[in-house]
Amino acid sequence: MTPIRFGLIMDEMVEILLFEDNFGDASLIEEMLEGFSDFPYELINVKTLNEGLSLLKECLFDVILTDLGLPDSDGIDTFLDIHARNPRIPIIIFTASDNEKIGIDAVKKGAQDYLVKGQIDSRLLKRSIQYSIERKKIEEVLANIEIARKKEIHHRIKNNLQVISSLLDLQADKFKNKMVVTISEIIAAFKECQDRVISMALIHEELYKGGKIEDLDFSKYVKKLTQNLFQTYKLVNTIISLNMDLEDNLFFDMDTAIPLGMIVNELISNSLRHAFPDRDKGEIQIKLCREKKGKYINHREESKNKNCNTTSFILIISDDGVGIPENLEIEDIESLGFQLVTSLMAQLDGELELKRNNGTEFTMKFTVKEKKQESIKFDRNVYYI
To answer: How far apart are CA 294 and CA 297, in angstroms?
Structure first.
């Protein structure tokens, strides 16, 4: 976590623009700043709204102080005119003692603070200026974070739609060389596509429920995904048991979660559809955990991530069904599902191993980069992000 220091001890020159037509009030503000400010500043006083707006077009200011009663403007409209033209500059307004409501209304509409004339002292003015500048900086940081998050959401939507489009293209390719296609084959193809899309949709559903938009609790997601698949492929005459050994608190970002979720979907649905013909019972097992140090090293990832912390994981999906014939390598299987599994594991820079002992067992090993978590913390003197 990197601190961004907006510290309240300001070393750079603070440019202050004061809208005030009363000579005595303007002089009092200047005296307060001269006596107690511990930061360098330059104060420019204008007497009318139009004069100040013209100056704002030519010069940059760090903070604006304004009386609401000027010769050419009066009331909250004074603030609104200044704020509309200069929304990024913090504005502090001065109000009369009998009209604090207008100050509260101005703060609701974007002013950083309001001070009551006759109740202002040097320390209060200094603190208000400093905190108004700091709060405005924080507002901009938060706004930029929100913009970045919205861009990320749109990027994810675009990527997901591209994945769906590619899946439909691959599914359509299965029928290109067939002279005759049955209705049942078409329905099965659409069902497979639907399952793949649901596996992606569940990821976003779990992110929404968990209150996060970046990292997915993958073990929790796998439980939900397998539950849906078992309901979808419920076998009438076969009792399938599910044995899950999933390590808790495994959080993956979208670059890992989406391909890994699709792999789980393909392998579990394949077992449910094909592993237990003419069987009255069967078992599917899923194991996901961090790999113990020294057990597994992905040399491709190691060379790419010398300066990054990475964690290795193992995902094992197995069943005690009929298995895959010994003479058939996974790369040679024409099933779109298995082609997706090998392709998605390559996307993860992972390793895939197939075992055929008493059924079918897929062991997948992959590494995940540890990303720095960014958050905003506040204390009295420094803001961190």
So the answer is: 7
